[in-house]
Write a structure and sequence with these properties.
The complex is a heterodimer of chains A (113) and B (111). Chain A has 113 residues and is mainly beta. Chain A contains no helices and eleven strands. The chains are: A mainly beta (113), B mainly beta (111).
Chain lengths: 113, 111
């Protein structure tokens, strides 16, 4: 079956631009997570959705970051006024509501010039 | 002190060796523990999932949790070059809480 997919796989943008990163979770998974991973570091939690609602957004670094999941499936992470420090791999993961094991997508590599 | 710590490596071992990877943590509320493997330019892949203290074995992999010492380990027996990757530990305290990951240990198994 299909795993978690993320698009685009790579994104290069200029400082100050707006970007959207998309995550398509495993079908039927109600929980969806976004993480950010910098080089040589483990994934850093950003936000967790249970269904359509953000159950925990405590990891979003500032108000330039926003995420939605309007129909409880696909999610979009939105970054406004990008900064060079936003350059990282953005990972999405999903799980069912009966287990905690998360299944990760391949990530989107964001480079802000 | 970071909440979860791992030796970043790199750790190089010969093929067939037993590998020991470890994490220490500071939050005594953690009770769910996971090990992920991450190949270069790929997302993390779940290897082992354990709850509370004890051992769990799956093929060549054994996970150990010692909550009294706040120390978890992953052992890989008969290591193969295909095991060369970064190994991440992750943990949380309750269902639905966000996971905290360690920084990862880079392993290289030499043929």
């Amino acid at each position: 079956g299909a795993g978690v997919s993320q698009t685009p796989s790579n994104k290069v943008t200029e400082k100050g631009k707006y970007v959207e990163l998309r995550c398509d979770p495993i079908s039927g998974h109600t929980a969806l997570y976004w993480y950010r991973q910098s080089l040589g570091q483990g994934p850093e939690f950003l936000i967790y959705f249970q269904g359509t609602g953000a159950a925990d957004d405590s990891g979003l670094p500032n108000d330039r970051f926003f995420a939605v999941r309007p129909e409880g499936s696909v999610s979009t992470l939105k970054i406004q006024r990008t900064e060079r420090g936003d350059s990282a791999v953005y990972l999405c993961a999903s799980s069912t509501d009966r287990e905690q094991t998360q299944y990760f997508g391949p990530g989107t590599r964001l480079l802000v010039l | 002190q970071k909440e979860v710590e791992q030796d970043p490596g790199p750790l190089s071992v010969p093929e067939g060796a037993i590998v020991s990877l470890n994490c220490t943590y500071s939050n005594s509320a953690f009770q769910y523990f996971m090990w992920y493997r991450q190949y270069s330019r790929k997302g993390p892949e779940l290897l082992m999932y354990t709850y509370s203290s004890g051992n769990k074995e799956d093929g060549r992999f054994t996970a150990q949790v010692d909550k009294s010492s706040k120390y978890i380990s992953l052992f890989i027996r008969d290591s193969q070059p295909s095991d060369s990757a970064t190994y991440l530990c992750a943990m949380n305290g309750n269902y639905g809480q966000n996971f905290v990951f360690g920084p990862g240990t880079r392993l290289s198994v030499l043929p």
